[in-house]
Amino acid sequence: MPELSRRRALTAAAALATAAGTVPALAPAATAAGHHGSPASFDEVYKGRRIQGRPASGSGHHHHGAGYAVFVDGVELHVMRNADGSWISVVSHYDPVATPRAAARAAVDELQGAPLLPFPAN
């Protein structure tokens, strides 16, 4: 019988965790309060900018954010929910975060005081 190495022990532990269904607990907090896994609404001032988020109403154009709208100073920040439950925005596209609120805060950080310009809808 082969000797049990650290690599084999970690591989076995990962396989058992996956089979037991404990791995989803390591994913970003996709269900941070809200109905049917939808994120909770928010309205706050972050670094002097007003950020808001709420379930999107049928405004006529397609939302990739799973029916969720985010605004920075009243201008819509286009957000998208990834398959793993994380969120990205048009401003911080390569930096996924756990919630739409975190996406709005990351956008404010990236904008560094510059206004968010409306994104043209096709």
Task: Outline the structure in words.
- The protein has 122 residues and is of the alpha+beta class.
- The chain has one domain (26-111): 2-Layer Sandwich (protein ne1242 fold), CATH 3.30.1880.10.
- The protein contains 2 helices and 6 strands.
- It has a 4-stranded antiparallel sheet, with helices on one face. A two-stranded antiparallel ribbon has the order 5-6.
- The longest helix has 15 residues, at 6-20.
- The protein is elongated and about 60 Å long.
- The protein starts with 5 loop residues before the first helix and ends in an 11-residue tail after the last helix.
- Residues 22-35 have low confidence and may be disordered.
- This is Tyrosinase cofactor.
- Belongs to the melC1 family.
- InterPro entries: GriE/MELC1_sf (IPR023199), MelC1 (IPR010928), TAT_signal (IPR006311).
- Residues 30-63 are annotated as: Disordered.
- Residues 30-41 have a biased composition (Low complexity).
